[in-house]
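testing teh design pipeline on a random one, pls ignore if ur not involved
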C-alpha cells in the first residue's frame, strides 16, 4: 500500500544527491565546518528512519511509490521492511560519522569538496539500493554504487595503484551488474511483476519455474561480485588504495554488503533448494577461510581489516545459504555487529596512519600513551570482533554457532576456524600498535582531532550498548530483519548471558582458547602462511591482469582484422554480407521466385534496356577510371527514362539530377585525388570482384522478383490516398510521403548526404596537402636588392 504519511521517504532518497551538488561550494565557503554541516543530512535521514522502527517491528511494511513510466511497468517505488530498515539505519548512521571523519582526515586536501560530493552520491546510491521496490530501480541504484565507488577508490587518481584498483573494482562489479540485469528481467518475466514486494508474495513460483537455474546463477553473479566471494574477492583488498574514509564506509558497512543484501532479499523466493543450500555454504565457507588466512599474512592495518571483511562476507553468505531460521538470525546479528566494529576499526587504522605516519604493524608500538582515546575505541571494537562478552559480537557468535550446529558440523568447523583467525587479527590491530615500548614513527604521534576519534568512539560504544540492551535490539531490529530474510515470522529472545550450557557456549570457549593460543604465535603463523601463498604463486589478482591483457591483445588483433585501413576491404565485406543476406535465406528455405516468361516489350522499352546494357559494356571496357565513372551515368539515365515512361515524372527528374550530380562530383574528386589513372587489379582479383558483383545483382534481382510476385496489399496505398490531402494538405502523394509521413527518414537521408559531402571535402583537402608536401616549391632567385642578401 502507499502511505501519504511517509512521502518524506522520496526526499530522504534524494537528499544525499542534493547534498552532493552543493558540497564543493559549501567546502569552499565554510572550510572545515562543511563536514559537520553536511553530516546533518544523513543524520536527519537516520532520525527519520528511526521513526519507522515501531511500525516495522510490529510486523508492518511501508511502501511508497509513484508511476514514472507505467507503459514499461517502471515505478519510482520504495519498500521498507525489517531488512531494508536496518540497512538504511546502518548506511545513514555510520555515514554521518564518515562524513565528519572525512572532514578531519582530508583536511587541507585540494579536492576535499569533490570527495564530499562523491561520498554523498555513494550514500544516496546505496540507500536507494536497499529501499528500492521496483526491480529496475534496484538495478539502476546497483550500477550507481559501482560507478560512485569507482570514483571514490580512484580518488587519488595521480597514483597508478589507485587507478588500477578503481578500474578493477568497476570491471568486476560491473560484470556482476550485467548478470543481475539478466536476473531481474527473468524474475519479472516469471512472476509477472517488477515490484519486489509483490515478488516476495509469489511463494514457490520461482523455485518451481523452469528458469530457476538461470535466475539463481544470474542473481549469484551479481551478489558474488559485489560481496567479493572467492575467487572474485581480490578487488576488495586492492580497493584499500582509496582514502581510509572510503574503506571504512564502502568496504565494511555498505557497498560490499550489497551482495549479501541481495541474497537475503531473495532468500524467501530462491532459498531452501538443494542448489541454494549447497552453492552458498560452499563458496561462503571457502571465502571465510581464504579471507582469514590472507588477513593473518598481512602487516598493513587496512589490508588486515580488508581481508577479514572478505572473510566476514563469506560467513554471511554461508549462513544465508543454510536457509535455517537460527542461522539466518545469526547472520543478521553478525551483519549488524560487523558493521559497527569494522567501521570503528577502519577509522582507528586511519587515525594511526594520519597521526603516526604509517600503517605497518611492524613499525608501530607504544601508542597507548600518545593516543589513549583511539586505543580505547580500538580495544572495544576488537573485543566485539573477537566475539567476547559483553559486546554484540559475542551474542552474534553464540546465535550463529547455535544455528550451524543444527545444519552441519563441517560448517561449524569452518566457522570456528574462521572466527579463531578473526580473533587473532582483531586483537593484532587493537593491541600491537598501542602496547609495548614506544617505537619511533615517521610522524610524532599524538591524539587526533575530535572529527577523527568521534566515529570510532560512538561505534565502539554502540557495540556495547546494543548488547547491554539486547532485548530492545532484538525486538526492534534483529527479529524484524530475520523475519524478512527467512520469509516467515520468527520468535526467540536474545540474551547477553547464555541461559544454558550448550554447544554454542562450548564452541565460543573453544574459539577463545584457540584464538589466544594463535595470537601468541601470530608472527610464526604469518610467516608460515606467507611461505604457503608465495609457493602457490599465481592467484586471482594476477589472473585478473592476465585476463585484461589477453582481452586487450585479442581486441587489438580483432580490430586489425576488421579495420585494416583499406577501403576496398570494407566495401567488399559489406557487399559480401549483403549478398549473403539476400541469397542464403531464399536458397535455404526454398523461396526462390519463379522466372518471368513471355516478356512483351515495346520497341522504346527495349531501346531503353539496350541503352542500359550498352552503358554496362562501356563501364567494363573503359580504359580509365574517369571514363568508367562517366559511362556509369548511362545506367542512371536509363532508370530515369523508365520512371518517365511509367508515369512518375517527379521521380524521373530527381533521378536525372542525382545521376548528373553524382557523375560530376565523382569526376571532380577523381581529378583531385592522387590515384592511378587506370585500374591495375590482377586478373584473379578481377574475377573475385566480378563474381561478387554478379552475385549482388542476382540477389537484388531475385528479391525484386519475389516482391512483385507477392499479392499486392493496398493497405498503405489506401491510407496515403485517404489522408495525404486531409492531414498533410498535399495532393502529390509521393511528396507528402517524403516530406510529411516519412519526414524523419528524409531528414536522415539528407544528413547522410551532408556527412558524405563533408567526408569527400576533407579527403580532397588532405590529398591536396599531401601533394604540396611531396612536390617541393621552386626556389626563386635571390634578390640582390634584399638587405638580407647584401648582409
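output:
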Amino acid at each position: 500500500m502507499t502511505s501519504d504519511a511517509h512521502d518524506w521517504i522520496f526526499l530522504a532518497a534524494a537528499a544525499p544527491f542534493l547534498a552532493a551538488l552543493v558540497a564543493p561550494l559549501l567546502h569552499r565557503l565554510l572550510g572545515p565546518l562543511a563536514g559537520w554541516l553536511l553530516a546533518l543530512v544523513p543524520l536527519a535521514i537516520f532520525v527519520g528512519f528511526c521513526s519507522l522502527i515501531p511500525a516495522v517491528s510490529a510486523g508492518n511494511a511501508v511502501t511508497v511509490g509513484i508511476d514514472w513510466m507505467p507503459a514499461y511497468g517502471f515505478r519510482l517505488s520504495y519498500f521498507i521492511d525489517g531488512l531494508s530498515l536496518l540497512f538504511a539505519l546502518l548506511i545513514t548512521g555510520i555515514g554521518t560519522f564518515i562524513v565528519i571523519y572525512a572532514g578531519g582526515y582530508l583536511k587541507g586536501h585540494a579536492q576535499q569538496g569533490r570527495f564530499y560530493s562523491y561520498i554523498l552520491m555513494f550514500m544516496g546510491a546505496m540507500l536507494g539500493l536497499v529501499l528500492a521496490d521496483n526491480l529496475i530501480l534496484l538495478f539502476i541504484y546497483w550500477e550507481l554504487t559501482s560507478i560512485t565507488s569507482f570514483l571514490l577508490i580512484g580518488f587519488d587518481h595521480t597514483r597508478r595503484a589507485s587507478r588500477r584498483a578503481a578500474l578493477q573494482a568497476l570491471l568486476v562489479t560491473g560484470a556482476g551488474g550485467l548478470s543481475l540485469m539478466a536476473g531481474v528481467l527473468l524474475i519479472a518475466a516469471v512472476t509477472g511483476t517488477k515490484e519486489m514486494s509483490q515478488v516476495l508474495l509469489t511463494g514457490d513460483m520461482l523455485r518451481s519455474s523452469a528458469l530457476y537455474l538461470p535466475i539463481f546463477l544470474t542473481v549469484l553473479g551479481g551478489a558474488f561480485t559485489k560481496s567479493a566471494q572467492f575467487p572474485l574477492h581480490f578487488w576488495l583488498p586492492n580497493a584499500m588504495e582509496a582514502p581510509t574514509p572510503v574503506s571504512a564506509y564502502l568496504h565494511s558497512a555498505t557497498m560490499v554488503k550489497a551482495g549479501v543484501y541481495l541474497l537475503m532479499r531473495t532468500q524467501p523466493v530462491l532459498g531452501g533448494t538443494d542448489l541454494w543450500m549447497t552453492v552458498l555454504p560452499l563458496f561462503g565457507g571457502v571465502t571465510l577461510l581464504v579471507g582469514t588466512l590472507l588477513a593473518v599474512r598481512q602487516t598493513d592495518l587496512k589490508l588486515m581489516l580488508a581481508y577479514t571483511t572478505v572473510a566476514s562476507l563469506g560467513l554471511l553468505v554461508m549462513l544465508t545459504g543454510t536457509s535455517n531460521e537460527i542461522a539466518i538470525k545469526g547472520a543478521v546479528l553478525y551483519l549488524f555487529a560487523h558493521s559497527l566494529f569494522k567501521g570503528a576499526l577502519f577509522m582507528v587504522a586511519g587515525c594511526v596512519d594520519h597521526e603516526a605516519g604509517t600503517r605497518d604493524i611492524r613499525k608501530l608500538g607504544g601508542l597507548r600513551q600518545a593516543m589513549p582515546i583511539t586505543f580505547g575505541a580500538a580495544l572495544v571494537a576488537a573485543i566485539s570482533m573477537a566475539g567476547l562478552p559483553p559486546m554484540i559480537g559475542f551474542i552474534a557468535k553464540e546465535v550463529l554457532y547455535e544455528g550451524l550446529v543444527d545444519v552441519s558440523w563441517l560448517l561449524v568447523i569452518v566457522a570456528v576456524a574462521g572466527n579463531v583467525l578473526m580473533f587473532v587479527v582483531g586483537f593484532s590491530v587493537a593491541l600491537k600498535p598501542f602496547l609495548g615500548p614506544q617505537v619511533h614513527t615517521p610522524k610524532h604521534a599524538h591524539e587526533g582531532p575530535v572529527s577523527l576519534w568521534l566515529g570510532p568512539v560512538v561505534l565502539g560504544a554502540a557495540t556495547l550498548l546494543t548488547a547491554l540492551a539486547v532485548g530492545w535490539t532484538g525486538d526492534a531490529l534483529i527479529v524484524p530483519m530475520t523475519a524478512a530474510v527467512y520469509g516467515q515470522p520468527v520468535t526467540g529472545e536474545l540474551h547477553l548471558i547464555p541461559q544454558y550450557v550448550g554447544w554454542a557456549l562450548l564452541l565460543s570457549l573453544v574459539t577463545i582458547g584457540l584464538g589466544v593460543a594463535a595470537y601468541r604465535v601470530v608472527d610464526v603463523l604469518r610467516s608460515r602462511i606467507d611461505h604457503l601463498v608465495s609457493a602457490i604463486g599465481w592467484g586471482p589478482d594476477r589472473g585478473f591482469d592476465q585476463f585484461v591483457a589477453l582481452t586487450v591483445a585479442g581486441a587489438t588483433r580483432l580490430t586489425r582484422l576488421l579495420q585494416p585501413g583499406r577501403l576496398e576491404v570494407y566495401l567488399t565485406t559489406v557487399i559480401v554480407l549483403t549478398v549473403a543476406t539476400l541469397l542464403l535465406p531464399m536458397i535455404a528455405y526454398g523461396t526462390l521466385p519463379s522466372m518471368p516468361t513471355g516478356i512483351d516489350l515495346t520497341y522504346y522499352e527495349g531501346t531503353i534496356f539496350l541503352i542500359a546494357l550498352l552503358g554496362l559494356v562501356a563501364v567494363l571496357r573503359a580504359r580509365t577510371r574517369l571514363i568508367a565513372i562517366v559511362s556509369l551515368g548511362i545506367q542512371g539515365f536509363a532508370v530515369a527514362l523508365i520512371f518517365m515512361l511509367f508515369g512518375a515524372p517527379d521521380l524521373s527528374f530527381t533521378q536525372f539530377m542525382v545521376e548528373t550530380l553524382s557523375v560530376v562530383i565523382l569526376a571532380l574528386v577523381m581529378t583531385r585525388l592522387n590515384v592511378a589513372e587506370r585500374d591495375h587489379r590482377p586478373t584473379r582479383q578481377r574475377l573475385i570482384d566480378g563474381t561478387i558483383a554478379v552475385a549482388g545483382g542476382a540477389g537484388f534481382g531475385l528479391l525484386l522478383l519475389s516482391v512483385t510476385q507477392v499479392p499486392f496489399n493496398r493497405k498503405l496505398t489506401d491510407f496515403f490516398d485517404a489522408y495525404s490531402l486531409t492531414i498533410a494538405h498535399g495532393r502529390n502523394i509521393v511528396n507528402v510521403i517524403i516530406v510529411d509521413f516519412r519526414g524523419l527518414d528524409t531528414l536522415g537521408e539528407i544528413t547522410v548526404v551532408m556527412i558524405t559531402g563533408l567526408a569527400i571535402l576533407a579527403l580532397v583537402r588532405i590529398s591536396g596537402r599531401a601533394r604540396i608536401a611531396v612536390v617541393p616549391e621552386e626556389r626563386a632567385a635571390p634578390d640582390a636588392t634584399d638587405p638580407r642578401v647584401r648582409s
